[in-house]
Amino acid sequence: MKDQALFDKIDLHLIRVLNTVLTERSVSRAAIKLGMYQPAVSAALKRLRVLAGDPILVRSGSGMVPTDAGLRMIEPSASILRAAGMLFSDARGFDPATAETTFRLAASDYMDPLFLPQLVAQIKALAPRSHIEIQPLSAESDYRSHLAKGDADLVIGNWSAPSDELHMARLFGDEVVCLVAKDHPAVRRGWDAAGWLAAEHIAPAAMHPGAKGVIDEHLDSLGMVRNITVRCPHFGLMPSMVASSLLVMTTGRQYCERFAGILPVKILPSPIEFPRMMYYQLWHERTHASNASKWLRERVKSVAATLRKE
Hints:
Elements: H1 3-8, H2 12-24, H3 27-34, H4 38-52, E1 57-60, E2 63-66, H5 68-87, H6 89-92, E3 102-107, H7 115-126, E4 131-135, H8 143-149, E5 154-158, E6 167-174, E7 176-181, H9 185-189, H10 193-198, E8 201-204, H11 214-221, E9 228-232, H12 238-243, E10 248-252, H13 253-260, E11 265-269, E12 277-283, H14 291-307
Parallel strand pairs: 3-4, 3-5, 8-9, 8-10
Antiparallel strand pairs: 1-2, 5-12, 6-12, 7-10, 7-11
Helix pairs in contact: 2-3, 2-4, 2-5, 3-4, 7-14
């Protein structure tokens, strides 16, 4: 019998009967477990024997035992039933305690150095069987494409104008400040807009060629350009670079405060007024109705709320 013709004769109910008679090793016990009449189970077993070309279950003394072929069918049939159970499970609901979902997030550490560790800890505490893939937001990453293709379920970051092609939820806003070394001249003398623009600045690497971050986008709107002498793709290393140099790092206060107590740095107000940095989570229509993705977005929101300072 050709494979396609064979598959056309098999339905999920038949697989369930197969697995139950093999694990129960009894047609009568299988009938009780399946909620079927015994003759119906016997008829299904007869069909299975024809399809397999093997007795599958044979008598041994007063009971029954699987044949070698039957033993080999136990795990594949169980696997098919598990997969079938998962097939529409997310449409019906999402149970984090038992879900084996893989969550794919694209994020950077510029929100808050505690954000991603706390998010991972919360997800693993509530969904211990889940898997988490954290992807960097870099010049090489096209987060719109990744969301559309399913390479990422959620993108977390800050944009002055997030893509209107995507769903968006605000996480929090933060005051823009400057982080400098404790012995930076501006700590003693202060600075004005001209002095700040002329100072040596460190900034994150561009998200894509030609892209500018929210700080430089705002400066552009004012007709201003700052003196960026260092570009770094590793946001988490930038405060340490500031601590041992005359570099100026301009970003959200919340991020800077995480380092103020552990590095020889000082937080200074910016002499140029910036709008608050807004942090969002973005997702595609593809995952908008997914119960697993809704649960993930709630986790992101709850962790952000514990870190937020209004």
